[in-house]
Design brief:
- 49% of the residues lie in helices and 14% in strands.
- It is α/β, with parallel strands linked by helices and 173 residues long.
- Strands 1-2-4-3 form a four-stranded mixed beta sheet, with helices on both faces.
- Strand 1, helix 1 and strand 2 form a beta-alpha-beta unit.
- Helix 1 (15-29) packs across helix 4 (108-123).
Length: 173
C-alpha cells in the first residue's frame, strides 16, 4: 500500500500519477507488495526533519526513513508478518524541488520520478556517501527508471488504443 500525504498547497499534483509511478518503481525494485509512505510537503517540514534526524539545519529535496535495516543494499530482512513488509517513509520538499528544477531547466513532472526512485533506493539501503556507493545506487535508480518509462509507455499505448482501458496494462509489469 502506498500511503500518500500531500500537505503542500502550491503545486497541483495528481495523486493517481504519483501512486502509479511509485507502484511501478516498487515493482521495478522487486518490492511490489511492500508498503511505503510518501509525503509531499514544504521546506519547513523537511528542514525540521533534517535538523532533528540528520543534524543538518537546512532543507533538502528528499529525506528517507527506512523501516528496517537492510542486510545489504537492495536486500531487506525476510518479513515475519505482513506488517513487516514496510519499506519506510520518504518526505519531499516540493518548493526545494521546484527551485532545483528552475535552476536546471527540468520540468517538475520529470524530476519527481527520479526522486521517488532515489528515495526508494535509500529505503532499500543504498547510499551515496562514497563514490563507489554512488555508482551502485545510480545504476539501480537508472534501471528502475528505465522500467518505469517502458511500463508508462505501455500504459499510455493501451489507454490510447482503447477508450475504456483505464484499468492499466493487461499484463503485469
Amino acid at each position: 500500500m502506498i500511503l500518500l500525504k500531500n500537505t503542500q498547497k502550491v503545486f497541483n499534483i495528481s495523486n493517481r500519477t504519483v501512486r502509479t509511478q511509485i507502484q511501478l518503481l516498487l515493482t521495478a525494485a522487486g518490492y511490489r507488495d511492500w508498503d511505503i509512505g510518501v509525503c509531499l510537503t514544504g521546506d519547513r517540514t523537511v528542514r525540521k526533519l533534517n535538523a532533528q534526524y540528520r543534524g543538518k539545519d537546512k532543507s533538502t529535496d528528499i529525506l528517507s526513513f527506512p523501516f528496517a535495516e537492510p542486510i545489504q543494499p537492495g536486500v531487506l530482512p525476510t518479513p515475519r508478518s505482513e506488517d513487516d513488509k514496510n519499506l519506510g517513509d520518504i518526505f519531499i520538499s516540493m518548493r526545494y524541488v521546484e527551485n532545483w528544477c528552475e535552476e536546471h531547466h527540468v520540468r517538475l513532472e520529470d524530476r519527481l520520478p527520479v526522486l521517488y526512485a532515489h528515495g526508494i533506493c535509500h529505503l532499500l539501503g543504498y547510499d551515496h556517501q562514497e563514490d563507489a556507493d554512488y555508482a551502485v545506487m545510480k545504476k539501480k535508480e537508472n534501471k528502475m527508471l528505465r522500467k518505469l518509462i517502458n511500463w508508462q509507455r505501455l500504459l499510455d499505448s493501451q489507454s490510447s488504443s482503447s477508450p475504456s482501458s483505464s484499468t492499466g496494462p493487461t499484463s503485469k509489469p
